[in-house]
Every structure is written in structure tokens, then in C-alpha cells.
């Protein structure tokens, strides 16, 4: 049996917000991404694009934050299991970092192609 409380929308929302606050407080890379992403989202509202393209711009940025949250979860789980240097621990952390990197590449491609079409 799983050690999980009964589903409650408000409690689960609080858990999610607690997680975001924890990551924001302890992950400098997450804070840097927030400081870049929030202004870009604001700029996106002033670009003369279609609704679909505007949504793609915003989703590509949110995806970076999503990947960073998953990466942080992986890092915490690995650190919980072992503090020793282990090849599998490094591989897990590197895979999480790769996910963040790929999400940034995707966002950059979406933004560059969008801005290119506006020229």
C-alpha cells in the first residue's frame, strides 16, 4: 500500500506551491530562469503574432521551468539515496541536466523562428 494521503485539490495545490517555493529558494538556476522567462512572457504580449504562436512562445518558456523542477526532484532523490560519488548517481543527475538543456534549446528555437518570421 502506498503512503499517500487522500486526494484533496487544495492540499495538493499547496504541496505544488510549496515545491515551487522550495526550488525557487534553493536553486539559483531556477531563479535565473525565472528572471529571464518572466520578462520574455511580458514581451511576448507585445509581439504581433497569432494566438497559436503566442501560446507556443509561452509554453516553450514554461517547459524550461518544468524541466528544471524535474531535474531538481531527481537531484534531491539521488542525494537522499547516497552522498557518495557513484557513476549511476552522476548519470541520473546528468540526465536531468540534459532535460533542462534540451528544453532551453527548444525554447530558443521557438523564439528565434518566431522573431525571424516577424522581420
UniProtKB/TrEMBL annotation:
It is a multi-pass membrane protein. Substrate binds at residues 68, 97, 111-116. Its main location: membrane. Pfam families: DAGK_prokar. The active site is at 68 (proton acceptor). Keywords: ATP-binding, Cell inner membrane, Cell membrane, Kinase, Lipid biosynthesis, Lipid metabolism, Magnesium, Membrane, Metal-binding, Nucleotide-binding, Phospholipid biosynthesis, Phospholipid metabolism, Transferase, Transmembrane, Transmembrane helix. Its EC number is 2.7.1.107. It is found in: Cell inner membrane. The chain crosses the membrane at residues 30-47, 53-74, 95-118. It comes from the Bacteria. Belongs to the bacterial diacylglycerol kinase family. Catalyzes the ATP-dependent phosphorylation of sn-l,2-diacylglycerol (DAG) to phosphatidic acid. Involved in the recycling of diacylglycerol produced as a by-product during membrane-derived oligosaccharide (MDO) biosynthesis. This is Diacylglycerol kinase.
Amino acid at each position: 500500500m502506498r503512503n499517500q494521503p487522500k486526494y484533496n485539490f487544495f492540499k495538493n495545490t499547496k504541496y505544488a506551491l510549496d515545491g515551487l517555493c522550495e526550488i525557487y529558494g534553493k536553486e539559483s538556476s531556477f531563479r535565473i530562469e525565472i528572471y529571464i522567462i518572466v520578462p520574455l512572457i511580458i514581451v511576448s504580449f507585445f509581439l504581433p503574432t497569432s494566438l497559436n504562436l503566442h501560446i507556443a512562445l509561452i509554453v516553450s518558456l514554461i517547459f524550461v521551468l518544468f524541466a528544471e523542477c524535474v531535474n531538481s526532484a531527481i537531484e534531491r532523490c539521488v542525494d537522499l539515496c547516497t552522498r557518495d560519488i557513484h557513476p549511476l548517481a552522476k548519470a541520473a543527475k546528468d540526465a536531468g541536466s540534459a532535460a533542462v538543456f534540451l528544453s532551453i534549446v527548444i525554447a530558443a528555437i521557438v523564439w528565434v523562428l518566431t522573431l525571424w518570421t516577424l522581420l
